[in-house]
Specification:
Blueprint lengths: L1 H8 L5 H10 L1 H5 L17 H12 L8 H8 L4 H13 L8
Helix pairs in contact: 2-6, 4-5, 4-6
Bound molecules: heme C.
The site of heme C (HEC) has 20 residues, from helix 3, helix 4 and helix 5.
């Protein structure tokens, strides 16, 4: 019983869905596979818990850096499922200049 509860609460994200969601908006600033572009931070290769916490922080409208305004705007419409999917994708996303 406990296991059933735990697994339904800690639904892990779907990285394929995360990749698709990433391509809709995030890629415009953070670049292919979250590699970072100019002043936009690299966001790939980070722990699921880190990405999740950051996205929920921005979604709550909390400023953590000089350019949080941009991220708050992007995070507002995200659902919990989308955040889980994005985190699952970004954790292992790798930029490969030959094949994106
Ligand atoms: C308009 C440009 C823009 C878009 C689009 C954008 N971001 Fe960001 N993102 C930023 C900026 C700028 C920061 C740094 C904000 C700050 O100063 O707090 C940031 C920070 C982050 C961070 C925290 C990085 C760290 O190291 O703490 C994460 C995670 C993140 N973005 C994920 C996403 C995801 C996922 C999406 C798509 C839903 C997205 N971003 C869309 C500009 C953007």
């Amino acid at each position: 019983m406990l296991l059933v509860l735990l697994s339904s609460n800690a639904k892990s994200g779907d990285s394929e869905a995360g990749k698709i969601r990433y391509g809709k908006t995030c890629i415009n600033c953070h670049g292919p596979a979250g590699k970072g572009v100019a002043s936009y931070p690299k966001i790939s290769g980070k722990e699921v818990s880190y990405i999740t916490t950051m996205l929920k922080t921005y979604r709550d409208g909390i400023e953590v850096g000089p350019n949080s305004g941009l991220m708050i705007m992007m995070a507002k419409p995200l659902t919990d499922n989308e955040i889980a999917d994005l985190a699952a994708y970004l954790k292992d996303a790798k930029y490969n200049s030959n094949k994106q």
